[in-house]
Amino acid sequence: MKRVVAFVLSLSILLSLPATAVRADEGMWTFDNPPLKQWKERYNFEPTKEWLDHVRLASVRLQDGGSGSFVSVNGLVMTNQHVAGGQLAKLSTKERDLVKDGFYARTNAEELKCPDLEINVLVSYEDVTARVQGAVKANASDKEANEQRKAAMAAIEKESTETTKLKSDVVTLYSGGEYWVYRYKKYTDVRLVFAPEEQIAYYGGDYDNFTFPRHDLDVTFLRVYENNQPARTEHFFKWSAKGPSDGEFVVASGNPGTTNRLLTNAQLQYQRDLGNPLQMQVLSSRRDALSRFAAAGAEQARRANSTRRSLENSIKRLESQQAGLLNPRLFGKKEAEEKALRAAIAANPEWQQAYGSAWDQVAKAYGGLPKYAKRIAFSSIATPSRLGSLASTLVRYAEEIRKPNASRYDEFRDARLEALKVNLFSPAPIYPDLEEAALAAWLEEGQKTLGNDDPFIRAALAGATPAQVARQVVTGTKLTDVAVRKSLFEGGADAIAKSDDPLIALARRIEPVYRELRAWSEENIQSVDASAGQRIAKSRFAAYGKTAAPDATFTLRLSYGAVKGYSEDTTLVPFKTTFYGLYDRAESFGEKPPFDLPARYREGRNKLDLSTPLNFVYTADTIGGNSGSPVVNRNAEIVGLNFDSNLQKLPNRYVYVDDEEGGRAVAVHSMAIIEALRKLYGAEKLAEEITGAR
Amino acid sequence: MKRVVAFVLSLSILLSLPATAVRADEGMWTFDNPPLKQWKERYNFEPTKEWLDHVRLASVRLQDGGSGSFVSVNGLVMTNQHVAGGQLAKLSTKERDLVKDGFYARTNAEELKCPDLEINVLVSYEDVTARVQGAVKANASDKEANEQRKAAMAAIEKESTETTKLKSDVVTLYSGGEYWVYRYKKYTDVRLVFAPEEQIAYYGGDYDNFTFPRHDLDVTFLRVYENNQPARTEHFFKWSAKGPSDGEFVVASGNPGTTNRLLTNAQLQYQRDLGNPLQMQVLSSRRDALSRFAAAGAEQARRANSTRRSLENSIKRLESQQAGLLNPRLFGKKEAEEKALRAAIAANPEWQQAYGSAWDQVAKAYGGLPKYAKRIAFSSIATPSRLGSLASTLVRYAEEIRKPNASRYDEFRDARLEALKVNLFSPAPIYPDLEEAALAAWLEEGQKTLGNDDPFIRAALAGATPAQVARQVVTGTKLTDVAVRKSLFEGGADAIAKSDDPLIALARRIEPVYRELRAWSEENIQSVDASAGQRIAKSRFAAYGKTAAPDATFTLRLSYGAVKGYSEDTTLVPFKTTFYGLYDRAESFGEKPPFDLPARYREGRNKLDLSTPLNFVYTADTIGGNSGSPVVNRNAEIVGLNFDSNLQKLPNRYVYVDDEEGGRAVAVHSMAIIEALRKLYGAEKLAEEITGAR
Fold this sequence. Notes:
The first copy, chain A, is α+β, with helices and mostly antiparallel strands. Chain A is 48% helix and 15% strand.
């Protein structure tokens, strides 16, 4: 039985609220616009500017796709094991599996350098809305306007980078209602300090993922270095000795990835009817390919594990999000919201003139998307394969770098090239057997979906079978060698053109298809998204004021709420679990995987105080990307480490799931981390660094 | 969020099965017709006749409304604390609260005699269908047929009682498709040996009731005596040292109370639209009255506790049952079933002639019920009040006993008089303050529902207010004195007529109303139920054969299935819990009631092996009345003690909820009982009696 069915039904309750109300604890707020009114009214909390600055500067973004925080003055970073999982896998070998067995460096010298992890701290930000929007010439078409805005954004990023020496990104907020330049201090020497066994970080596996009660010690410690020394991080979070109490106000400071709460009905309908099912096909076919590969043996399973876990996570999340969209009441609510906004706009002739046509413009644009959607989804070899991604990037870079900065694809703007090189030249291991299997399965799925006459399939297969192509390019390529990649990168278009690497040849063949589809998409979808989105955003500001937070953009946000249990079915779910619960679950399943315990836990149970809290839930509005967010109390002390949401919360990509609905963020309790470090891992020194706040 | 919503939706899965299929593990089977085929096919289990006889003779029925079993040769009976709860309350005083504090008799001499508990063992049974059905004269009206059948049943019971000296009940099975006489050995000297604190027997209270995972030590031990000595019970269950393993075949042998799976659509519709809502009003108003009374203080709460708990249990169960009926798919399935059966009958002219009109007859009869339903529900003072029940019984008895045995109300047949006297002359305490509050609230609810012109209200109130009437009769009555009740019982109609006891006077005033309504009901509903029910039962036998078990009738049945967890939402629920889980739940709620622990458990946790299993689930088809049923393995050893169902299972009053739907019976694990007795209660002697099988 799927609770999600009950959930989407019960959304009817929240659907009765007025369209414009910001509900309790809703919102992923930018630091320039924290929800001070709500904090004051609901929690009697009034942070100082210093508090806000401190929280921001002690919070970090991991470019692998998660959040973290500084927890000592010596550059110690806390995040989730599953956020660090990619680096753990890259640091692992057949002989030393850091994912499975965990890791602890007793000295700085033992810390392991992550192959390609970049960590960012948001140092400053600035509103550049006027400049970006002002760059659009009068009477520009949507396509031209899109190009003009992009050129302005590229120029702002380049100037800011040169002036401040900080990594500078222009961020689009409120669907284009605002543009901000965010400037980051960047750490690229990041070393692994501690990781637990995956089996305790991800206890219960895919079954327990997105559920509560939960029993995961999903924590990893990293350390940022500068000049080969631990960086001195003045802004770090102190540790709460007791963790959160029931009902306590807490803040999660992190980088939520994507929400789509401001989408128009046409966009939502597209997601529901085609976008999400297509995405599910992409994820499922990749997951299935990796499962088949992993079934061949333990080492194969190890190689596939990290990506497979990530795919399973995405699939489970997508299922619940889609269930939300398929709920007629939720969708009806979204329709009612849009109708109300459009009516408010129509009632004011000036507004109607400026914004009134935006919704129909979006609907028209998305009406054209189904024809291209499958092609866009499958016309790439970068999605399933690391080697495919490297080859495509090298081929594309050689072309893009010849253009002026303002005209390039976003990801090749000057300000982004540093990050690009970190990725391209990463020494992380590449497994040809895994690459071949994943690429072959991907091309098969593409062939099945697009047909043999499709331009991508024709270019990619060139008459051969998917298996033959995958075998040929993976066996023949030299791109596993970082030096070869550097040479092609530096050799430019000429080197790419002359390369006889079969994978480069494949990337060259499919590049025109990719560019055609991207051009179509930028002209027909992105331009409209930007143009109409901006007008709709302005219409919302006009009708309701700036009362809501912008959709998530994998940039730093403040989420907040209360530590609080909830009711489920006819009983209560407490706000926390304890180590007792972990041992109950393991015993109750007879330690059948994925409910088995690492040996350290089985043998060490008598060392633990089992009443120590393990995980807890709280009402904050978070989403994927918030993994690893510090959960802090009003003294800015760490009380927990965000790592998940419960199932009830998952439709929050499209609509905020509030307290009464039982939607909750899930965190590791601060006491559990210290208890385990001290009693099970002999990591007294690390525990001391955290709690002693040295 | 209510999972029951998800549940009733997901019933769509089971609804796709053919109408006539008996699903896996379905059925509460009579001992004359055990599901040997299913046991053999599904579990490769072929019991001997001795096995079946032994299980039957070691199983008992508690007339308080539950099941139990002999677990030693010395008359030791195991049941649930909540089944024995009424007796525990009756044995309690303000100073000695056996419900709250539990009880353990270290010697036989310390065992406490229950005031009015009768325990039955099914010694033999005999098919009397031919005689009962044959008693109906040709061309008898339904009313006459009903009377003729009842007269036959009374005669059979009387003969059997006189011949065998055994308590003999004629049981109606398959809605009248079969009649059997069941003969019981009867124990009326029943003594309390052990009960745990209610807080551990009912851990989590109403919240956790009907949920799983669960953590209840819902056990009580009694002992039957004969001639003031522990009875020698040759047939008793031996104890399994290990309890059940995952997937193991088990049998629950107990007395399920009521199922309604053979109801016609018209009857179900009546239940859904009027019967259940009315029942909910009755239960809720009584519960609310007791809650108000209990709020006055600890002693008041103690006095109200037992009944209140029982009402809460009924309310929670009724909510889920009603949710099942309100599910259009479930109802549609029931409609499809009936349509298929009627079509099969219509296809055979002989069948059509004999049975074809039965459904319409039922529909017509139930069409008349709404007019009387509220009156029938509220025109009684026995429902809310023990004193009211005593007075009504005395008044009614005096009238009935003057009639020939065959013509009396069922409950006054000669064969039932012994049980009647046990009840009437019970020395159990009666609390006038509680009686007055409950009666006043009941009359108020009745007045509100029926109006002042209603015959019952006019007779009951006689112009006064409900509070005045309740005050007057409870203050003035002498029925709290057993001797007074005996005197009125023996005095017959004359004594009743002359009594100036105000409660007897009230009972006399309302008796004509009661008799009018009962006469209407017997003539218009029960007669039709019996007549049409019998024809429908025969039509089922004709069309499908005797493939299904009869509806539950609070007589001994065999339920069976596998010990097995299930999936819920996206994760798995293991088949068992452990003491770890109990401590997790207590800690996670900070021991906030009803999740607090008895002091013995809080202080004694280090004495326990926390990995000891506490509760488990299995797939057997059970329902209220099965509480206290022994759960035995194929060696007829006790592996558990049935005490509940999970929420998913509750609509099984109307439709079997199968394995795949997650419907489960819930039992106390045999190991938990021994672990607690030995480690926490110092009840080594009792543990030895059970496990040593002395």
